[in-house]
Amino acid sequence: MIIIMKDALTAKMVLAEAQNRQLPHVYRFENRVGFAEIKNINELSFINQADIVETIADHPAAMQVSRTFHPDDTIIQTPHSKIGGENFNLIAGPDAIESAEHVLAMGQAAKDAGATILRGGSYKPRTNPYSFQGLGEQGLQWHRAAADALGMDMMTEIMSPTDVDLVGKYTDIFQVGTRNMQNFALLKAVGKQSKPVLLKRGMSATVDEWLSAAEYIASEGNCQIILMERGIRSFDQKYLRNTMDVSVIPVLRELTHLPVLADPSHAAGVTEHVTPTGLAAVAAGAQGLMIEIHDQPDKAWVDGKQALTPEQMVNLFTKAQTIHDIVK
């Protein structure tokens, strides 16, 4: 149940009293107080009815991440980026960290193209257990050094709750990948720390499942969450790695206050399709793009088939910025 109070001060007092009574899962945004486990206003006798503007019983199960509870766009501030609202964010880097020199070179190319966030994987969730799994902490160190040298934010994937402290020593933004979207122990773990979390859509996840995964993070106290559409599992494996669900972007912009970005690299899976797929996502309202780049895609350790060269990245980012400026 969400209760809209007459002002923010009254809502703050209601929250304090609810916490004093040890009511579970009570949250506040400005003049709204949300009770995740209470459906009947009669259970809240300590609230003065005269202070209530409206009571909303029929609200999304993922309450905190909904616009019903939080009408305003969330803006996430990192050392080098503002994410959400009318901001447009460009994220790029190699799929896997390969060497200190390579991640620095790719980071420089990304920054020159307008990106403020350097992505790269040091822990790789691979379908085949014998495929390259990442360089671990050595990769994190090289990644961090490159981001610092370039004045960029660092974003990297985390796979296990046990790695939160280690990865958190290096990264500015945690990335939870598609295979871990419903790894609830991991979602709770990143929810207990204070850095932003980028949550990719599960490969077959519904909108409600995705938003509920975000709510797991928020329920632990961390509302700095970024949603990323990366394509859902397709039945046409001959031509498509995944299907970019362009229609979900405006749906999410309506349902949630969280920033909504897109990853056309994993959706398209083939270099020549990444740019048109990314532009379609921006036209639909995506507030940023993340792509994989490599100067020699045929020699990339992971996913070279979908990597753009730095020159192709510039072409995509230039067009994407123009489209964003038109539709924002």
From TrEMBL:
Keywords for this protein: Transferase
SUPFAM superfamilies for this protein: Aldolase (SSF51569)
Source superkingdom: Bacteria
One of the record's GO molecular function terms: transferase activity
GO terms for biological process, alphabetical: aromatic amino acid family biosynthetic process
Keyword Transferase: yes
InterPro entries in the record: Aldolase_TIM, Class-I_DAHP_synthase, DAHP1/KDSA, DAHP_syn_2
Keyword Zinc-finger found: no
Pfam families on file: DAHP_synth_1
TM region positions: none
Domain spans labelled DAHP synthetase I/KDSA: 81-320
Protein known as: 3-deoxy-D-arabinoheptulosonate-7-phosphate synthase
